[in-house]
Prior knowledge:
Layout: H1 2-17, H2 40-55, H3 60-71, H4 84-89, H5 95-110, H6 114-163, H7 165-171, H8 174-201
Helix pairs in contact: 1-6, 1-8, 2-3, 2-6, 5-6, 6-7, 6-8
Amino acid sequence: MLGALAASVVCLLGYALHPPRLRRRRSLPHPRRRGNPATADDWARWLHTVAAGVRSGDSVRVAVLHAHAHHALDGSVVHPGAPLDQLLQGTPTDADEAVVIQVLAVATALGGAVAATLQAGAALLHERAAVRAEALAHAAQARLSARVLTAVPLVFAAWNLIGSASFRRALGTPVGATAAAAGALLSVAGWRWMRRIVQKATP
């Protein structure tokens, strides 16, 4: 009985520290993209290139084609070679790509300081990327804390199971075995709960 309980503790500990990778399928790239999806910084650099082309004397249409050639981003609307008219008519599914389309629409509709409008959109995307990076850093700390809080009780129980005869005798009783199993299950349940909270708070 003690051997089975020890094996259960080890399995629960391994599950808590190394969850199945099948749970990460939601983070896979969008099937319409080739390779990894473009980040907010990627879209910002794309807008910077368009703005640079406008400042050099190109029209927005020509500057967009130059940006395609330099960056070749592949989104739901923006993709290499797509003309400006096609971009303005599209409805992107990515929030960062939507900013790009909105900025292009405003720049072409209002005119004026087109390059400044494009740079403002790029600055917004850079700010989004910085906020997300900070959120990911805090999420990593929260994940580490959750793993430590889950692992410490299980490791302590396993250590006492090996080195303490009185602990083994207590586990040999129905009450002790039930309490140990309930504690292990509650530790894993708490870890999963904290992991879910962190995932919801992570962009």
